[in-house]
Specification:
The protein contains 3 helices and no strands. By secondary structure, the chain is mainly alpha-helical.
C-alpha cells in the first residue's frame, strides 16, 4: 500500500506537469504572433514608402520658390549683361568704321 507522502509526491508532479502544459498552451494562443505582426508592419512600411508627408511637400514648395527666384534673378542679370555687351559691341564697331 502506498503511503500518504507518495500521493503528495504524485500530486506535486502532476501539478507541475499541468502548470507546464498550461503555460505552453497559453503561449501558443497569442492572437498576434511575432511573425504576423512583422508581416503587417512590413506591408504598412511598403505602402508608406511612396507617400510624401505634408512637411515634405511644404519643404519642396519652399525650395522650388527659392529656385524660381534664383532663376529669375539670373535671367535678369543675363539680359542686362547682353544689353551691355551689345552696346559695347556697337560702340567698337562704330569706332572701327570711323577709323578712330
Amino acid at each position: 500500500m502506498k503511503t500518504l507522502s507518495d500521493f503528495y509526491q504524485l500530486a506535486i508532479i502532476a501539478f507541475i506537469l499541468a502548470g507546464v502544459f498550461i503555460a505552453w498552451r497559453a503561449g501558443q494562443q497569442n492572437p498576434e504572433g511575432t511573425g504576423r505582426i512583422a508581416r503587417r508592419i512590413s506591408r504598412v512600411e511598403q505602402e508608406l514608402q511612396g507617400k510624401a508627408t505634408t512637411e515634405d511637400v511644404a519643404a519642396l514648395k519652399a525650395a522650388l520658390a527659392r529656385v524660381d527666384a534664383n532663376i529669375a534673378a539670373e535671367h535678369e542679370l543675363n539680359a542686362r549683361t547682353f544689353l551691355a555687351v551689345t552696346r559695347i559691341e556697337s560702340f567698337l564697331i562704330e569706332k572701327a568704321l570711323k577709323g578712330e
